[in-house]
Design goal:
Blueprint lengths: L6 H7 L4 H14 L6 H11 L3 E7 L5 H7 L6 H8 E6 L7 H14 L5 E5 L2 E2 L8 E2 L2 E2 H9 L4 E5 L1 H5 L1 H4 L7 E2 L1 H4 L6 E4 L6 H14 L12 H4 L3 H4 L3 H5 L10 H4 L18 H4 L23 H4 L15 H14 L1 H25 L1
Parallel strand pairs: 1-2, 1-3, 3-7, 7-9
Antiparallel strand pairs: 4-8, 5-6
Helix pairs in contact: 1-5, 2-3, 3-11, 18-19
The structure holds iron/sulfur cluster (SF4) and FE3-S4 cluster (F3S).
FE3-S4 cluster binds next to loops.
Length: 362
C-alpha cells in the first residue's frame, strides 16, 4: 500500500545507505543510456516521489517473469523495487486470497484510477469462451480489459504478454493472444519481451516514469529503445570471432572452448533486439551467449515458431542472408580482408533493413 514516505525514505528505512541509493541511480542511468548528468535528476525524482501503486496480473504463463522479478539483485534492486512500488495486488506474491485479494485489486483500480501501474504477465486465452484461465469468476480477457483501461501505464512483461509467446505458438490450442491484441488502442503501453523479462528493464522503465513523468521512447512494437534499440549481434562479445570467421562447429570443440561465435550452432543474435550483452543476468554475471549457448531470440515476436529449431540458424527468417554472409566469409578470408569487410558491412546493412521492415509489418 502507498505511504506518505518518499521512495528515498523507504529505501533508508530498509537499512540501505545513501551510497546504495546513488549506486542504484547511476546504474539506472547507465541502463537507460542517459547522459551521466541525468543521475542528479533521477536522484532528485526518487527522493521526492511516492511509491507507485501497482497491480500485477498473471495469466497464461509459467511464472518466470515473477521469478525474474523476485531474483533482482542489482545494487539492492530487489529492496529498491519494493520501495519504488506499492504492489497492491499480485496473484503469485500476495498473502491474501479469495475475496480479500479481489477486494484489494478493485479498491486499487477504483481509488488509484489513472495513477496505478498495471503489469501483465502471460498471454490471454480467448478460445472456448476464455475457459482456460479464469480468476475471481471472470475470464482473463474480461479482467485484462477492466484493469488496463484505467491504468496510467500498462507494462507487459515477458514474451507471452507482449507477443503471445509459447501459448500462441502453433497450434495455439487455447486461442492465446497478446495483451495488445485483446486490449487494443491503449495509450500508454510498454512491451518488455524476453523469456523471461529482465527485471533490470522493468526497474529502468519505472525509474524513467518516475523521473520524467512519461514512459521511455519505444519502437513500433512498443519496446523501449534503451533496451531493444540494438541487435544482440552488434553488442556481442563474440562479434570479433564472427567478423574474422571463427565459428563453433560442434559443442565442446576448440572454438567452443575458446569462446568463438555461436552462429553456426543456431545463434539468433543477428535477428534479435535486446540488451542482454549489456545488462546481462544474475546480477550482471553472464548471459546466454556469454555462457556458451546461442541466443534463441526469446525477445522477438513469435519466437517459438520463427526462431526454432533453436540449434539451426535462422531457418524461417525470409531473405535474411546471414548464411550467405557466413559462407562467404570463408571465401573472403582467402580472397582478402578488404573484400570480406565490404561483404560483411553490406550484409549487415541489408539484414538491418529486412529486420526493421519485418518489425514494421508486425
Ligand atoms: Fe554473438 Fe551470436 Fe552474433 Fe555470434 S552470431 S557474434 S554469438 S550474437
Ligand atoms: Fe533471450 Fe537471446 Fe537474451 S535468448 S535472454 S534474447 S541472449
Amino acid at each position: 500500500m502507498t505511504t506518505d514516505k518518499s521512495i528515498y525514505e523507504e529505501f533508508l528505512d530498509r537499512g540501505l545507505t545513501r551510497r546504495d541509493f546513488l549506486k542504484f541511480c547511476t546504474f539506472m542511468v547507465g541502463t537507460l543510456a542517459l547522459p551521466w548528468d541525468a543521475v542528479a535528476k533521477v536522484e532528485e525524482a526518487l527522493r521526492s516521489s511516492k511509491r507507485l501503486p501497482l497491480v500485477w496480473l498473471e495469466f497464461q504463463s509459467c511464472t518466470a517473469d515473477t521469478e525474474s522479478f523476485l531474483r533482482a539483485s542489482n545494487p539492492s534492486a530487489s529492496q529498491l523495487i519494493l520501495d519504488v512500488l506499492a504492489i497492491n495486488y499480485s496473484e503469485t506474491l500476495m498473502t491474501a486470497a479469495g475475496h480479500q485479494a479481489e477486494e484489494v485489486l478493485w479498491k486499487t483500480v477504483e481509488e488509484e484510477k489513472g495513477r496505478y501501474v498495471a503489469i501483465i504477465e502471460g498471454s490471454i486465452p480467448t478460445g472456448d469462451g476464455g475457459v482456460y484461465c479464469t480468476i475471481g469468476g471472470e475470464t482473463a480477457e474480461e479482467r485484462a480489459k477492466r484493469v488496463c483501461k484505467d491504468a496510467s501505464i500498462v507494462i507487459n512483461v515477458g514474451t507471452c504478454a507482449c507477443f503471445g509467446g509459447l501459448p500462441m505458438a502453433s497450434p495455439n490450442p487455447t486461442g492465446a493472444k497478446s495483451v495488445e491484441q485483446v486490449v487494443p488502442n491503449l495509450k500508454n503501453i510498454i512491451n518488455l519481451p524476453a523469456c523471461p523479462v529482465n527485471v533490470v528493464n522493468v526497474s529502468a522503465t519505472l525509474v524513467h516514469l518516475l523521473t520524467f513523468g512519461s514512459a521511455p521512447s519505444t519502437d513500433r512494437l512498443h519496446r523501449p529503445l534503451f533496451a531493444y534499440g540494438r541487435r544482440i549481434h552488434d553488442a556481442c562479445e563474440r562479434r570479433g570471432s564472427y567478423d574474422s570467421g571463427k565459428f563453433v562447429e560442434r559443442w565442446g570443440d576448440e572454438g567452443h572452448r575458446n569462446g568463438w561465435c555461436l552462429y553456426k550452432m543456431g545463434c539468433k543474435g543477428p535477428a534479435t533486439f535486446h540488451n542482454c550483452p549489456k545488462v546481462r543476468w544474475n546480477n550482471g554475471t553472464s548471459w546466454p551467449v556469454g555462457s556458451g549457448h546461442p541466443c534463441i531470440g526469446c525477445a522477438e515476436p513469435n519466437f517459438w515458431d520463427s526462431m526454432s529449431p533453436f540449434y539451426k540458424h535462422l531457418p524461417k527468417v525470409p531473405g535474411f542472408g546471414v548464411e550467405t554472409t557466413v559462407d562467404k566469409i570463408g571465401i573472403g578470408l582467402v580472397a582478402g580482408t578488404a573484400a570480406l569487410f565490404l561483404l560483411h558491412g553490406a550484409g549487415s546493412w541489408v539484414r538491418d533493413q529486412i529486420i526493421r521492415k519485418r518489425d514494421d509489418k508486425l
